Amino acid sequence: KAGVTQTPRYLIKTRGQQVTLSCSPISGHRSVSWYQQTPGQGLQFLFEYFSETQRNKGNFPGRFSGRQFSNSRSEMNVSTLELGDSALYLCASRRGPTGELFFGEGSRLTVL
Amino acid sequence: QKEVEQDPGPLSVPEGAIVSLNCTYSNSAFQYFMWYRQYSRKGPELLMYTYSSGNKEDGRFTAQVDKSSKYISLFIRDSQPSDSATYLCAMRPTSNTGKLIFGQGTTLQVKP
Questions:
Q1: Testing the interface with A: which of B97, B101, B104 to mutate, by most A Cβ within 10 A?
Q2: How do residues B71-84 score in pLDDT, each as one tens digit?
């Protein structure tokens, strides 16, 4: 059974650009959550989607946004990139509105 | 003050040792507790998932939750070099959310 798939795995952007990251959940999973991981702040929750609806949002500026499609795949977008946005962005999925979260390998974003 | 505190280590032990990893938390509403293992440049992998207080054992791993003390532990018996990784505790108040609150992670090195 395939795990959570995130693309791209690595990317480099410059300040002011925007970026879109993609997440394909485990087959049959309908809930997707996004996290940002940095050495200083650790893992921080960005947002959660279930059945194409955002259910919860973390304490991040409006430059961070996401969406979920009818096939449960999700994307997150960061606009007007800042140096501090350099991080590992992790996607996690679960079957329904409850249960354990299973993480993907992450997308490592470097902002120059 | 962070909601979840975890000693970042690093923790270095000889192969075969018993390892004890701990987290304390301040929010008494937390009821679901998890331990994740994260290898370098990989996503977090779920090791243990427990509800409320008590112990849970899975092979060489034992998770303990003491809600009265707001303290959780993960024990690793007969530690192996392959256990060398960062261990993250995580928790949430209900199962109906994808928002986990993580500790900073403890880096463990098991020396052959």
A1: B97
A2: 999 999 999 999 99
CB contact under 8 A, B98 and A92: yes
| Residue with token string 């505790």 | B89
DSSP string, B20-68: EEEEEE--TT--EEEEEEE-TTS--EEEEEEESSEEEEETTEEEEEETT
pLDDT of residue B110: 97
- Which chain B residue's Cα is nearest to A50? B98
What's chain B's Rg over C-alpha atoms?
13
Q: What's the CA gap between B92 and B41, in Å, rounded?
A: 25
Nearest to B98 among A31, A105, A108 (CB): A31
Question: Cβ–Cβ of B99/A90 closer than 8 Å?
Answer: no
Residue B70 one-letter amino acid:
K
Residue A1 has pLDDT above 70, yes or no: no
CB nearest to A103's CB, from B44, B103, B104: B44
Least confident of A14-23, A37-46, A64-73, B50-59: B50-59
> For B52-104, how does the pLDDT look when each residue is reduced to its tens digit (9 = 90+)?
888 999 999 999 999 999 999 999 999 999 999 999 999 998 888 889 999 99
Please count the residue pairs, one from chain A and one from chain B, whose beta carbons lie less than 8 angstroms apart.
57
